[in-house]
Write a structure and sequence with these properties.
The protein is mainly α and about 140 residues long. The protein is about 70% helix and about 0% strand. It has two domains: about 35 residues, no CATH class; about 60 residues. It has seven helices and no strands.
Length: about 140
């Protein structure tokens, strides 16, 4: 890469004339090996998020991994239509239900314990849970 800095680019480009593509290819051919050598090439994977509710109600990584495991078990069952795969899926589903219930109750206990210190968070959670939703419109 340091050799590229020592090149007199004005002289190099004047040799190529007015052809812009030739100048670009010359520059690219000189810098590309250095970039490949010195830049790290890491593939950034987009992580799947299940919902914003998970972060708010305190779902821990263990519960989220169980959700992923349940999802893969369901896919496996759909491919095979095997009874044992369905039983494994139901077992994973029960574990997810139990872990999310535990996480939710743990989160609610934390909010209740910190209600005097952080009343804003407490009342925000109460307001969130006491909204009434209209299931169907009345004419």
């Amino acid at each position: 890469m340091r050799n590229d800095v020592k090149i007199d680019w004005d002289v190099k480009f004047s040799e190529l004339g007015t052809d812009t593509n030739a100048k670009w290819n010359c520059l690219k051919d000189h810098t590309e090996p250095g970039v490949r050598l010195n830049m790290s090439h890491r593939k950034i994977l987009r992580q799947r998020t299940y919902s914003n509710q998970g972060s708010r109600c305190g779902l821990i990584a263990k519960a989220l991994s169980k959700v992923r495991k349940k999802h893969s078990a369901w896919k496996r069952y759909l491919q095979t239509k095997d009874g044992s795969e369905y039983a494994r899926y139901k077992c994973d589903q029960n574990q997810v239900i139990n872990s999310t219930r535990r996480s939710k109750s743990r989160y609610e206990r934390e909010i209740a314990a910190k209600a005097r210190i952080n009343p804003k968070q407490f009342w925000r959670y109460v307001q969130q849970k006491t909204k009434s939703r209209v299931l169907f419109q009345t004419c």
